[in-house]
Amino acid sequence: MKIRHIKIFLALILLLCIIPFPYDYYLFVRYASTFGFGVLAFQAYATKTPKVVLYLLLSFMFQPFYKVHFDRSFWLIIDVLVAVWLIYDVYFKNNLSEKR
Q1: Which residue of 9, 27, 40, 52 has the smallest Cβ count within 10 Å?
Q2: pLDDT tens track for 38-71
Q3: Within its chain, how far is the Cα of 82 from the centroid?
């Protein structure tokens, strides 16, 4: 699986958090985000990219074992911002680097 697909999948499930789903979906998002950001952190470490710290921070923030307690509205802001950043990283950042 390509790194691009992982980022798109994470952005999609984070954007779906806007819709009120049962709690089990949000638990799935926590597990999937922890695993996905962990894989992205490992890949960034292997390629010596400075995003390792950011991916690890996001992985620990979304981890399901010791929950970070924020308001639902604050979690929605975080979910949307992270999803927008992932989409930007996949589509727009790659297009800018290809034009150079």
Answers
A1: 27
A2: 999 999 999 988 889 999 999 998 888 887 788 8
A3: 6
